[in-house]
């Protein structure tokens, strides 16, 4: 991106015509020195739109509102483009997966809600142990693949966030309480990945996601306990 041209405007002084010693009207560059005004690009607008959809998605899913899924689908479609532009290929695959899972999640939740049977649930520790081991092996395989055959910027970190996000999204659709533990760790790790690729808006968004994931864990825990102990007030 080329730097904007700095214009200087000369105005006649009170006792002389326009000369080399004419007064100069202060401009942005006068006050800011070397600072530059950032130009809004189409990619920036796409990133902002994806960010807005992402925030709406996580707020609505924390509230267990089915409207979360349309926002998630649109935000993921926009994110596919941005990840490809920044050579984060496994992240692009992840967002394609999010689109597909968004459609499935929308249908799944609608069916469960129609049957009045869509509560928050918990899975046993052994299930999560197997899941983490499987995701770790898949991370090594995917990271090696992208490291060898593509110009991926951070192949193994990118692969780890991608693979574990697959698992967390699956748990999210199933409304498994522990999904928020996965998201807290994943979001914290993803901040560095996006900042490293100068996706500053996304990096800021992921910080917000980390905080919201803690909120999600609290809210779903309360929801789970309320259903598990219906007699308690």
From TrEMBL:
<comment type="similarity">
    <text>Belongs to the nicotinamide ribonucleoside (NR) uptake permease (TC 4.B.1) family.</text>
</comment>
<keyword id="KW-0813">Transport</keyword>
<comment type="function">
    <text>Required for nicotinamide riboside transport across the inner membrane.</text>
</comment>
<dbReference type="Pfam" id="PF04973">
    <property type="entry name" value="NMN_transporter"/>
</dbReference>
<dbReference type="InterPro" id="IPR006419">
    <property type="entry name" value="NMN_transpt_PnuC"/>
</dbReference>
<dbReference type="GO" id="GO:0034257">
    <property type="term" value="F:nicotinamide riboside transmembrane transporter activity"/>
</dbReference>
<feature type="region of interest" description="Disordered">
    <location>
        <begin position="1"/>
        <end position="24"/>
    </location>
</feature>
<keyword id="KW-0812">Transmembrane</keyword>
<feature type="transmembrane region" description="Helical">
    <location>
        <begin position="129"/>
        <end position="149"/>
    </location>
</feature>
<protein>
    <recommendedName>
        <fullName>Nicotinamide riboside transporter PnuC</fullName>
    </recommendedName>
</protein>
<keyword id="KW-1133">Transmembrane helix</keyword>
<feature type="transmembrane region" description="Helical">
    <location>
        <begin position="180"/>
        <end position="195"/>
    </location>
</feature>
<feature type="transmembrane region" description="Helical">
    <location>
        <begin position="90"/>
        <end position="109"/>
    </location>
</feature>
<keyword id="KW-1003">Cell membrane</keyword>
<keyword id="KW-0472">Membrane</keyword>
<dbReference type="GO" id="GO:0005886">
    <property type="term" value="C:plasma membrane"/>
</dbReference>
<feature type="transmembrane region" description="Helical">
    <location>
        <begin position="201"/>
        <end position="218"/>
    </location>
</feature>
<feature type="transmembrane region" description="Helical">
    <location>
        <begin position="66"/>
        <end position="84"/>
    </location>
</feature>
């Amino acid at each position: 991106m080329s730097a904007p041209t700095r214009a200087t405007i000369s105005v006649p002084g009170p006792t002389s015509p326009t000369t080399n010693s004419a007064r100069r009207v202060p401009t942005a560059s006068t006050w800011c020195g070397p600072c530059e005004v950032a130009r809004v690009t189409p990619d920036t607008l796409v990133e902002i739109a994806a960010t807005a959809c992402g925030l709406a998605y996580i707020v609505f899913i924390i509230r267990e509102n089915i409207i979360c899924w349309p926002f998630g689908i649109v935000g993921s479609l926009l994110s596919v483009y941005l990840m490809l532009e920044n050579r984060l290929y496994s992240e692009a695959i992840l967002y394609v997966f999010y689109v597909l899972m968004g459609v499935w999640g929308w249908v799944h939740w609608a069916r469960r809600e129609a049957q009045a049977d869509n509560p928050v649930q918990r899975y046993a520790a052994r299930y999560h142990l197997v899941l983490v081991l499987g995701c770790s092996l898949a991370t090594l395989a995917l990271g090696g693949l992208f490291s060898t055959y593509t110009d991926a910027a951070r192949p193994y970190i990118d692969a780890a966030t991608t693979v574990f996000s697959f698992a967390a999204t699956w748990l999210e659709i199933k409304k498994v309480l522990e999904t928020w533990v996965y998201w807290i760790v994943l979001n914290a790790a993803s901040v560095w990945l996006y900042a490293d690729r100068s996706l500053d808006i996304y990096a800021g968004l992921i910080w917000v996601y980390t905080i919201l994931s803690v909120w999600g864990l609290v809210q779903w825990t309360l929801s789970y306990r309320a259903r598990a102990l219906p007699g308690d007030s």
